[in-house]
Amino acid sequence: MQAKKFWKTASPVILLTIVVAVCVSILTYVDSITRDKIAAQENAAVEEMLATMFPEMTDYKYENEIYTIYDGEEQVGYAFLAIGSGYGGDINILVGLEDATTIKEISIISQEETPGLGTRITEPDFTNQFIGLPIDDVALSRDGGQVDAITSSTISSSAVVDAVRETALEKVKQLTENQ
Amino acid sequence: MSELAAVFIGMVLINNFILTRFLGLCPFFGVSKQLNSAISMGVAVTFVMAVASLATWIIRTYILIPFDIEYMNIVIFILVIATLVQIIELFIKKTNAGLYFSFGIYLPLITTNCAVLGITLINVQESYSLTGSIVAALGGGLGFTLVLAMMSGIREKLEMADTPKAMKGLPIAFLTAALLGLAFLGFGGMI
Amino acid sequence: MGKFGKEFAKGLILSNPVFVLALGLCPTLAISTSIDNALGMTLAVLIVLIGSNIIIAAIRNFVPSITRIPIFIVIIATLVTVVNLIFHAYLPATYESLGIFLPLIVVNCIILGRAEAFASKNPIKDSIADALGITVGFMIALLIVSFIRQLLGTGNLTVFGVHFFTLPGLGEHPIVAFVLPYGAFLVIGIIMAIFRWKGVIKSE
């Protein structure tokens, strides 16, 4: 009689515990088989972008949030992430530096701008303007710089420009201080 | 401070939970026929969102990350939310039976409200701090309540309008939401 | 038409989760910007719904009423986490575009709703039929909406990188509104109205 009563009150808890235990084991297992693949993917994505930006790259190092790009033993440039406050959200930009004063290239990683308008910041017509641009010239034409904004998308354009310039100046300062 | 303000305004207007992120839609179309119940629902959801953000942030920072079991977050977050809603339900039942009655089935349904689980996931995604998470939750909840209130006001009027038969109820509600969404687009680029 | 077929057909039209029951609205509105997304989401929902329906139908006689909901939630959350991890590792593009809505399948009223209303009271075979029917209904709803939104909103019909055709005129100047949130509400509202107009369900 006592056993039956015990079973009645305990069974929901016991069943729940069993279900939870089984689920946790399944999750731990699935995590173990996917974990490496997921990590590899994230690295692969960045590597691919760096390789496109620096075709001569053979190796890179990541330290203090700056990528240093190597061709063999020679340092050929730097890269870092810049985040701009766009119209619809953050704009993630990969900025490549030739040296401490010149931008090599930029690549828009992700953005949430208005389709057809702000999203045109991803087009070569806009991003190509940054190729070989001195950091000091990274500003919109209307502000005395060398970058033409996209018509009707000044917010998206200036978000990119500001993020690139500010972060570039910051990283350059960081690099020269560490040398 | 200005960063928190930006997060808050962003959540309320620019990336409004209902009209931009599409979170919290089920109660949006189910409850919003009367202004009073809409506001009560909004406040309840905001409260759950804030407390859930607090609880999940603590669990994530002190348990999930140190033990490297972040992949458990979906299971744990939803269990936390379900428990939270149960506790709140019991509390309201004991202290304000009238309120409990007027909520009806929609109170336990807060557990499945995408806005609640949504905000906890967004907090993870954006790596908000503790204050950031709570501010984001309050903002998200406020935005949700705002749109819910607007919608109920409009629907009250719609009840008396001469709507074509096929449009009555949900269809016209959706179209109204479309127009509201269009209006909210204007908030983009505010910060 | 055996019981299997009957349950299946029910999920398609009469109990269409989106247009009739108005469940699972959040992902439908958010995901339906392209056919690729629609298919990705359907796959995820299919795995979770069939999995949860089978498991819950299998243990339905052992589950005491009190702990029923927490157990369902744990099972569904586990399935969703598994799908989340697998997609992240093996289908990264789909994982990225589904974003937050992949984990949100946990609170998708469709899944818990079917578990509670059907799988917990019916044998495994019927529960599988139910899951399939509902998923197909969901898929069709998603596909219709995505098709319209993608075509009018981007002018192109491109599925998994295979370009099918471009609408003349719209290719250059698509009606962008359709891929924005506002367009989502618009399309679904109109389709719901059509369902009511055709008498599929009673208007209010």
What does this structure look like?
The complex is a heterotrimer of chains A (179), B (191) and C (204). In chain A, strand 4 and strand 5 form a beta hairpin. Chain A has 179 residues and is an alpha+beta fold. Chain A contains 3 helices and 5 strands; from the N terminus they run H-E-E-E-E-E-H-H. Chain A is 45% helix and 22% strand. The longest helix of chain A has 52 residues, at 2-53. The model of chain A has no long low-confidence stretch (mean pLDDT 84). With 191 residues, chain B is mainly α. In chain B, 73% of the residues lie in helices and 0% in strands. Chain B has helices spanning 2-14, 25-31, 35-64, 73-95, 97-103, 114-125, 130-160, 170-185. In chain B, helix 4 (73-95) crosses helix 5 and helix 4 packs across helix 6. The longest helix of chain B is centred in the C-terminal third of the chain and has 31 residues, at 130-160. Chain C has 204 residues and is mainly α. Chain C is built from 8 helices and 2 strands. A two-stranded antiparallel ribbon of chain C has the order 1-2. In chain C, strand 1 and strand 2 (162-166) form a beta hairpin. Chain C starts with a helix and ends in a 7-residue tail after the last helix. The mean pLDDT of chain C is 81. The interface between B and C is large, with 44 and 43 residues.
Strands of the biggest beta sheet of chain A: in what spatial order? 1-2-3-4-5
Overall pLDDT of chain C: 81
The share of residues in helices of chain A is 40-55%
The largest inter-chain interface, given as chain pair and residues per side, is: B-C, 44 and 43 residues
Biggest beta sheet summary of chain C: 2 strands, antiparallel
Output the helix-strand order of chain A: HEEEEEHH
Low-confidence stretches of chain C: none
Summed up, the helix count of chain A is: 3
Helices and strands of chain C, in N-to-C order? Answer: HHHHHHHEEH
Percent in helix of chain C: 55-70%
Spans of chain A of at least 5 consecutive residues whose pLDDT stays below 50 are none
Shape of chain A: elongated
Number of separate structural domains of chain A = 2
